């Protein structure tokens, strides 16, 4: 069967992918969105489908459930004219245009299932977790991987909190959480922080922060409903203990979902797709990146949506230039 051709395809269905789709559809470019089927471990809709209340996405004064927000974005994409396919893309070839795309199950075939003149990669990222015993019970009931997203929720107010990690993100998240928690304990696996000198100094000097070196968490403990303590082991003395805590925040890094483009597009040292600052353009003309897969700094729904808009506008301009070039050579 001949590949299905579109002017533009979007891979990914989080806030970045759907915002790109809304803009592309409104520009009459009839985008196809591959929303994935548990791609990168997430249901269609992405990371927000794994959370409850989202209180910082504009337009929802009382907050909105993550799953509901993503259903609304999906409906808006469709209403604007995007075609959404519940398919995971397992291979692309961007070495020549049109770009070649293979849906899951067809990656061994020579012929792609789809082709597109422009591609928006919005495959997202995932926060690293330790999957401690008890984590399945207390994930989102005391355990989080995003202080900015969840720090303000009532269960953490004036309560002791734990942050896991020793880098800049851990330091930033711990200091951020001092606004809400009564005390913030930072558990660092090694005998020193990896954070920059300035951040480390700020963290160590903060009156509401205690840094525990050579300590790793071993268990998430609670009452069956909410987390109330974190068990730990000292990696040097092997001494075990327990810290009372109503919040456990992972700050041990994120993994951008870059498998599709690895080796085809420039990535930074942490695996994020490199975009030209102030745009969504990658080093491959016609290939645009949006959302968490290219953003290691903000990683928020609204910034992902913003970059999805940028990718759509960049793709639209690229396609119209392509059209003009084709008209001139006729
Ligand atoms: C538990 C949790 C709570 C959060 N709370 C908040 C909050 O309150 N406020 C906030 O602003 N941010 C929050 N965030 C962060 C926010 O969810 C992300 O910044 C945002 O979802 C990133 O959007 P994205 O579009 O880049 O990608 P994602 O949301 O990661 O979505 C990417 C999608 O693409 C799909 N996909 C991946 N690979 C493929 C493929 N090969 N083929 C097809 N599809 C593919 C995935 O399945 C996924 O559905 C939270 C994150 C988590 C994990």
From TrEMBL:
Enzyme Commission numbers on file: 1.8.1.9
InterPro entries xref list: FAD/NAD-bd_sf, FAD/NAD-binding_dom, Ferredoxin-NADP_redctase_2, Pyr_nucl-diS_OxRdtase_2_AS, Thioredox_Rdtase
Cofactor mode of binding and number, as noted: Binds 1 FAD per subunit.
UniProt catalytic activity: [thioredoxin]-dithiol + NADP(+) = [thioredoxin]-disulfide + NADPH + H(+)
Signal peptide (UniProt feature, chain positions): none
Cofactor(s) required, per the database record: FAD
Keywords: Disulfide bond, FAD, Flavoprotein, NADP, Oxidoreductase, Redox-active center
Pfam family, one: Pyr_redox_2
Domain FAD/NAD(P)-binding, chain residue ranges per copy: 7-308
Entry annotated with the keyword NADP: yes
Subunit record text: Homodimer.
Similarity comment: Belongs to the class-II pyridine nucleotide-disulfide oxidoreductase family.
Protein's UniProt name: Thioredoxin reductase
């Amino acid at each position: 069967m001949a590949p299905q051709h579109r002017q533009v395809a979007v891979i990914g269905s989080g806030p970045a992918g759907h915002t790109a789709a809304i803009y592309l559809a409104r520009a009459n470019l009839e985008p196809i969105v591959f929303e994935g089927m548990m791609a990168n471990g997430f249901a269609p809709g992405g990371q927000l489908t794994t959370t409850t209340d989202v209180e910082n996405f504009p337009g929802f004064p009382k907050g909105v459930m993550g799953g509901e927000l993503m259903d609304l974005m999906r409906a808006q994409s469709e209403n604007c004219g995007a075609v959404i396919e519940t398919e995971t893309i397992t291979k692309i070839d961007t070495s020549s245009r049109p770009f070649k795309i293979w849906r899951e199950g067809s990656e061994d075939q020579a012929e792609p299932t789809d082709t597109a003149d422009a591609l928006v990669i919005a495959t997202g990222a995932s926060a690293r977790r330790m999957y401690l015993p008890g984590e399945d019970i207390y994930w989102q009931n005391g355990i989080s991987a995003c202080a900015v997203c969840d720090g303000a929720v009532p269960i953490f107010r004036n309560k002791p909190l734990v942050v896991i990690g020793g880098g800049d993100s851990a330091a930033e998240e711990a200091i951020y959480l001092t606004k809400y928690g009564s005390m913030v304990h930072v558990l660092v696996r090694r005998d020193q922080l990896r954070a920059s000198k300035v951040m480390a100094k700020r963290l160590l000097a903060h009156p509401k922060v205690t840094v525990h070196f050579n300590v790793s968490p071993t268990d998430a403990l609670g009452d069956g409903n909410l987390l109330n303590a974190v068990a730990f082991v000292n990696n040097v003395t092997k001494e075990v203990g327990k810290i009372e805590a109503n919040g456990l925040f992972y700050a041990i890094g994120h993994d951008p979902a870059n498998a599709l483009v690895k080796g085809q597009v420039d990535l930074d040292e942490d695996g994020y797709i490199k975009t030209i600052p102030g745009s969504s353009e990658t080093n491959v003309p016609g290939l645009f990146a949006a959302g968490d897969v290219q953003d290691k700094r903000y990683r928020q729904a609204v910034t992902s949506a913003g970059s999805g808009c940028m990718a759509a506008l960049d793709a639209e301009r690229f396609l119209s230039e392509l059209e003009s070039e084709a008209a001139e050579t006729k």
